[in-house]
Amino acid sequence: MLTLGWHWFTSWIIGWGGISSAVAVAAWALWFFCPSILLTYKTQLLHIAVAATVFAFASGYFFTSGFNSGHAVALREVAALNEAAVKRVEEGKGDIANCRAGGGTWDVTDGSCK
Known about the structure:
mainly alpha
Protein backbone atom coordinates (compact mmCIF):
# COMPACT_ATOMS: atom_id res chain seq x y z
CA MET A 1 0.00 0.00 0.00
CA LEU A 2 2.83 2.35 0.84
CA THR A 3 4.50 1.54 -2.48
CA LEU A 4 1.34 2.45 -4.37
CA GLY A 5 1.11 5.70 -2.43
CA TRP A 6 4.73 6.52 -3.15
CA HIS A 7 4.27 5.72 -6.83
CA TRP A 8 1.21 7.97 -6.98
CA PHE A 9 3.10 10.76 -5.22
CA THR A 10 6.19 10.56 -7.43
CA SER A 11 4.39 10.08 -10.75
CA TRP A 12 1.46 12.48 -10.41
CA ILE A 13 2.45 15.09 -7.85
CA ILE A 14 6.15 15.47 -8.61
CA GLY A 15 6.31 13.96 -12.09
CA TRP A 16 3.49 16.00 -13.57
CA GLY A 17 4.46 19.20 -11.81
CA GLY A 18 1.58 19.00 -9.37
CA ILE A 19 3.33 20.99 -6.68
CA SER A 20 4.19 23.78 -9.07
CA SER A 21 0.63 23.65 -10.40
CA ALA A 22 -0.73 24.12 -6.88
CA VAL A 23 1.69 26.98 -6.27
CA ALA A 24 0.73 28.54 -9.61
CA VAL A 25 -3.00 28.34 -8.85
CA ALA A 26 -2.49 29.82 -5.39
CA ALA A 27 -0.26 32.60 -6.70
CA TRP A 28 -2.66 33.48 -9.51
CA ALA A 29 -5.59 33.55 -7.07
CA LEU A 30 -3.68 35.73 -4.60
CA TRP A 31 -2.55 38.02 -7.40
CA PHE A 32 -6.09 38.38 -8.69
CA PHE A 33 -7.66 39.06 -5.29
CA CYS A 34 -4.80 41.14 -3.85
CA PRO A 35 -5.77 44.82 -3.41
CA SER A 36 -4.01 47.30 -5.66
CA ILE A 37 -2.60 49.12 -2.64
CA LEU A 38 -0.14 46.30 -2.12
CA LEU A 39 1.49 46.83 -5.52
CA THR A 40 4.89 45.49 -4.42
CA TYR A 41 3.37 42.19 -3.35
CA LYS A 42 1.21 42.05 -6.43
CA THR A 43 4.22 42.16 -8.77
CA GLN A 44 6.02 39.53 -6.70
CA LEU A 45 2.95 37.31 -6.84
CA LEU A 46 2.80 37.79 -10.60
CA HIS A 47 6.43 36.71 -10.97
CA ILE A 48 5.87 33.67 -8.76
CA ALA A 49 2.70 32.74 -10.66
CA VAL A 50 4.38 33.00 -14.06
CA ALA A 51 7.46 31.05 -12.92
CA ALA A 52 5.36 28.29 -11.33
CA THR A 53 3.17 28.05 -14.42
CA VAL A 54 6.17 27.76 -16.73
CA PHE A 55 7.73 25.14 -14.45
CA ALA A 56 4.48 23.14 -14.35
CA PHE A 57 4.20 23.07 -18.13
CA ALA A 58 7.90 22.29 -18.56
CA SER A 59 7.85 19.42 -16.08
CA GLY A 60 4.72 18.02 -17.70
CA TYR A 61 6.33 18.23 -21.13
CA PHE A 62 9.58 16.57 -20.07
CA PHE A 63 7.76 13.84 -18.13
CA THR A 64 5.50 12.96 -21.05
CA SER A 65 8.32 13.09 -23.61
CA GLY A 66 10.39 10.75 -21.44
CA PHE A 67 7.41 8.46 -20.98
CA ASN A 68 6.72 8.40 -24.72
CA SER A 69 10.33 7.67 -25.64
CA GLY A 70 10.45 4.83 -23.09
CA HIS A 71 7.21 3.48 -24.47
CA ALA A 72 8.63 3.50 -28.00
CA VAL A 73 11.79 1.66 -26.85
CA ALA A 74 9.69 -0.99 -25.11
CA LEU A 75 7.54 -1.46 -28.21
CA ARG A 76 10.62 -1.91 -30.40
CA GLU A 77 12.04 -4.52 -28.00
CA VAL A 78 8.76 -6.45 -27.89
CA ALA A 79 8.41 -6.27 -31.68
CA ALA A 80 11.89 -7.74 -32.12
CA LEU A 81 11.10 -10.59 -29.70
CA ASN A 82 7.80 -11.16 -31.46
CA GLU A 83 9.47 -11.39 -34.87
CA ALA A 84 12.01 -13.88 -33.50
CA ALA A 85 9.23 -16.00 -32.00
CA VAL A 86 7.28 -16.00 -35.26
CA LYS A 87 10.41 -17.03 -37.14
CA ARG A 88 11.02 -19.93 -34.73
CA VAL A 89 7.41 -21.06 -35.09
CA GLU A 90 7.65 -20.97 -38.88
CA GLU A 91 10.85 -23.00 -38.76
CA GLY A 92 9.18 -25.48 -36.42
CA LYS A 93 6.20 -25.84 -38.73
CA GLY A 94 8.58 -26.85 -41.52
CA ASP A 95 10.21 -29.54 -39.38
CA ILE A 96 6.86 -30.98 -38.33
CA ALA A 97 5.52 -30.90 -41.90
CA ASN A 98 8.67 -32.66 -43.19
CA CYS A 99 8.34 -35.29 -40.47
CA ARG A 100 4.71 -36.00 -41.31
CA ALA A 101 5.41 -35.97 -45.05
CA GLY A 102 8.04 -38.66 -44.49
CA GLY A 103 5.55 -40.84 -42.62
CA GLY A 104 6.90 -40.13 -39.15
CA THR A 105 5.27 -38.80 -36.03
CA TRP A 106 6.42 -35.71 -34.24
CA ASP A 107 7.27 -36.16 -30.57
CA VAL A 108 6.43 -32.92 -28.77
CA THR A 109 8.25 -33.91 -25.58
CA ASP A 110 11.73 -33.84 -27.07
CA GLY A 111 11.02 -32.13 -30.43
CA SER A 112 12.09 -34.99 -32.67
CA CYS A 113 10.65 -37.03 -35.48
CA LYS A 114 10.08 -40.73 -34.85
